């Protein structure tokens, strides 16, 4: 625990094992690190903290290469440090992209050294964290020869934090960590957040919610709802952002802001925000100048336009490209970027088709400093969805994949649901855009303006993430954004070892729990055949999204007495036709469509036979039941760790798994009752109970 009493997450730096510790001490007890830039200050601070933990000795920091010691760690650029220039190929280092680094074990004047080098200071930060990760994982450091560069240029966390109420939309870990009322006063927690982010390679943070206006509260001019994000664009607001930027800068993290499309009206009483109006254009240009005067390394603006009540170019009959480009022109002279979200839906019978229909025709029309940010699936972060059709459809536009780290639909701050396997599926999905072997991840790493964005998960809770095990999702997001080729097992193993130490029984158990958690959630929350939106929404604005309530959403699952699922085939909504061949053909036919997506693409009779002869309804029952069994098993596996990990963390997770079992049972009972009510086909094992308490909640009437 840090002084402010919150968790260190994966940066615990527990003492290394005896044998390993000697080797680490030889090479790292003395540190020769360059000084100067803010990033180097962060490197030195981290090394001091980490080595004190790992080596159980405070390191000695040198300003020149020490000659009286057995070995040392050197961190710096070859330009600044001759000893480093002697130890690595300077050409190779110079060729590294921004953030890339090189680590080598070398002998230098008889001393056993480790060299961490890069061509940029940010690269030194990442290289340092990489070395520390290896040490925290207990790996040897006497024979290192590592070169890494981030695959994706932009690796950003999007906070859905309301700066003035300090709440977090879809946040399950308490209030926002950003205390805007007290800013520009700084807190130690900002530094620790920046450390966590940089340690996994995140290089951007959007500080405020994309919902800059509360839906349903009238037009921009009537905006009354409580001073949301747009106020950060005023002088006072920018001073606060600049203060945060001064912390993040040391860790190579750039700040971004979500802006309301009608900002000229909200801030300066303009009577239009029409992107083609010259006064509006000038307003954005002036605003960008003000922002960059205050924060020279500002990243840019994120915009949710024409979606769920937010203002946008449609208010003026302009396209999204026209809308985005006016902001892009304003940011361009300062090196800034517009992140424009593709999350739009309205008035369409099948919401899945809309993002593609809106944006694909605009391919090539966005300026170079616009990134189109697309959610991983066509609907909305469901436990399982097919991959968005826009990936692979817009090669004239920089695309970013938006993933949701916070668990809006996957058990919120309570359920253990490890999302790395879901994200791997998205990143590895073969779009076939340029024939076989065109994985989606190549789209996000394909250019400087592309990347990966994740909806943030942290809050004031001492665990940061609400559920302790959800820290693994934040960790995994960063690691995959840096290197989407990492396999799930590697990411899991790294996180577990750094978080819980080296006890093999603990590593096996925690890794196994994480591994089995997503399939279980998919099973009890959906029945596992591609159904979506089975959750409770509640009265307008309650939007619980945690409890089960399938009857609320007939348009999303299509359950009728003759069958279930939505027909998105060529004969149905046609969504399937947005994929390249042979994906389209495969999904179009229920015989070839992968079972886990079957009911997303097809409306099928309840007694439709699956490949193994089981009927659809029976498989739905079976999956709901087995999902609960797995969660019970997860709970027991965790209970076997009593006494093997500290009591505080043990109890925290144990309590949440208890709750998850109860909640999974509610999901199961509600869903199977719902399937039974519509199909009138009993479970062949006689397990389906139908009682007043699990009868599906009736649809909302608004
Ligand atoms: C920020 C879903 C969520 C909303 C979210 C929206 C979005 O609808 O429930 O909370 O709003 O997605 O991504 O813009």
Provide a compact summary of the structure.
Helix 9 crosses helix 10 (320-331) and helix 20 (616-639) runs antiparallel to helix 21 (647-679). The strands form 2 sheets. An 8-stranded parallel β-barrel has the order 7-8-9-10-11-12-13-14. With 702 residues, it is an alpha/beta fold.
Name the features:
702 residues, alpha/beta, Chitobiase, domain 2, TIM Barrel, Alpha-d-glucuronidase, C-terminal Domain, 3 domains, eight-stranded parallel β-barrel, six-stranded mixed β-sheet, 21 helices, 14 strands, 36% helix, 10% strand, globular, binds 4-O-methyl-alpha-D-glucopyranuronic acid, Glyco_hydro_67_aGlcAse_N, polysaccharide degradation, xylan alpha-1,2-glucuronosidase activity, carbohydrate metabolism
Kindly state the number of beta strands: 14
Helix tally?
Answer: 21
Biggest sheet: strands, sense, closure?
A: 8 strands, parallel, barrel
Low-confidence segments, given as residue ranges, are 215-228
Given helix and strand content, the structural type is: alpha/beta
Mean pLDDT: 94
Strand order of the largest sheet: 7-8-9-10-11-12-13-14
Bound molecules: 4-O-methyl-alpha-D-glucopyranuronic acid
CATH superfamily heading of the largest domain: Glycosidases
Structurally, the number of domains stands at 3
Assess the beta-strand content as a share of residues: 5-15%
CATH top level label of the largest domain: Alpha Beta
CATH topology of the largest domain: TIM Barrel
What Rg, in angstroms, do the CA atoms define?
Answer: 26 Å
């Amino acid at each position: 625990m840090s002084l402010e009493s919150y968790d260190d997450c994966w940066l615990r730096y527990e003492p290394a094992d005896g044998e390993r510790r000697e080797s680490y001490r030889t090479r790292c007890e003395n540190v020769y690190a360059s000084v100067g830039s803010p990033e180097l200050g962060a490197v030195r601070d981290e090394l001091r903290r980490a080595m004190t933990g790992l080596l159980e000795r405070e390191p000695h920091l040198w300003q020149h290469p020490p000659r009286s010691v057995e070995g040392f760690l050197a961190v710096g650029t070859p330009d600044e440090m001759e000893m480093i220039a002697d130890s690595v190929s300077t050409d190779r280092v110079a060729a590294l992209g921004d953030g890339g680094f090189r680590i080598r074990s070398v002998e230098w004047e008889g001393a056993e050294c480790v060299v961490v080098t890069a061509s940029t200071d940010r690269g030194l930060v990442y290289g340092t964290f990489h070395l520390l990760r290896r040490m925290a994982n207990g790996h040897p450091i006497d024979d290192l020869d590592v070169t890494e560069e981030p695959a994706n240029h932009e690796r950003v966390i999007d906070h859905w934090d309301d700066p003035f109420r300090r709440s977090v939309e879809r946040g399950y870990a308490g209030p926002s960590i950003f205390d805007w009322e007290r800013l520009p006063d700084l807190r130690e927690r900002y530094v620790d957040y920046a450390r966590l982010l940089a340690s996994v390679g995140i290089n951007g943070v959007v500080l405020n919610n994309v919902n800059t206006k509360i839906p349903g509260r009238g037009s921009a001019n009537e905006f009354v709802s409580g001073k949301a994000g747009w106020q950060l664009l005023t002088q006072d607001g920018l001073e606060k952002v600049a203060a945060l930027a001064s912390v993040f800068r040391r860790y190579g993290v750039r700040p971004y802001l979500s802006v309301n499309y009608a900002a000229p009206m909200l801030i300066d009483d303009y009577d239009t925000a029409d992107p083609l109006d010259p006064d509006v254009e000038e307003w954005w240009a002036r605003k960008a100048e003000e922002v960059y005067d205050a924060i020279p390394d500002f990243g840019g603006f994120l915009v949710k336009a024409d979606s769920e009540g937010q203002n946008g170019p449609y208010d003026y009959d302009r396209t999204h490209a026209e809308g985005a480009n006016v902001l892009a022109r304003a940011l361009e002279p300062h090196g800034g970027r517009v992140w424009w979200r593709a999350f739009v839906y309205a008035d369409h019978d099948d919401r899945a088709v809309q993002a593609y229909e809106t944006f694909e025709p605009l391919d090539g029309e966005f300026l170079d400093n616009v990134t189109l940010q697309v959610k991983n699936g066509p609907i909305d972060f469901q436990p399982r969805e097919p991959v968005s059709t826009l990936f692979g459809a817009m090669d004239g536009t920089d695309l970013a994949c938006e993933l949701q780290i916070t668990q809006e639909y996957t058990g919120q701050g309570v359920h253990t649901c490890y999302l790395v396997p879901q994200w791997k599926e998205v990143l590895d999905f073969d779009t076939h855009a340029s024939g076989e072997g065109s994985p989606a991840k190549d789209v996000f790493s394909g250019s400087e303006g592309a990347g990966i964005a994740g909806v943030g998960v942290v809050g004031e809770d001492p665990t940061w993430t609400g559920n302790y095990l959800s820290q693994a999702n934040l960790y995994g997001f960063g690691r995959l954004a840096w290197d989407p080729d990492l396999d799930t097992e590697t990411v899991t193993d790294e996180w577990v070892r750094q978080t819980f130490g080296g006890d093999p029984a603990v590593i096996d158990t925690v890794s196994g729990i994480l591994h089995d958690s997503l399939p279980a959630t998919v099973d009890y929350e959906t029945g596992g055949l591609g159904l979506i939106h089975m959750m409770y929404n509640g009265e307008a604005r309650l939007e619980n999204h945690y409890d089960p309530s399938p009857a609320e959403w007939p348009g999303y699952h299509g359950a009728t007495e003759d069958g279930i699922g939505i027909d998105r085939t060529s004969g149905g909504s046609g969504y399937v036709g947005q994929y390249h061949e042979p994906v389209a053909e495969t999904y179009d036919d229920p015989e070839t469509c992968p079972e886990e997506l079957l009911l997303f693409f097809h409306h099928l009779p309840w007694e439709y036979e699956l490949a193994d002869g089981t009927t659809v309804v029976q498989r739905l029952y079976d999956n709901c039941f087995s999902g609960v069994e797995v969660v019970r098993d997860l709970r027991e596996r965790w209970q076997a760790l009593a006494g093997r990990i500290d009591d505080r963390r043990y109890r925290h997770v144990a309590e949440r798994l208890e709750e998850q079992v109860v909640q999974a049972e509610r999901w199961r009972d509600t869903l199977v009752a719902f399937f039974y009510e519509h199909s009138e086909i009993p479970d062949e094992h006689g397990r389906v109970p139908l009682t007043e308490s699990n009868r599906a909640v009736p649809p909302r009437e608004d």
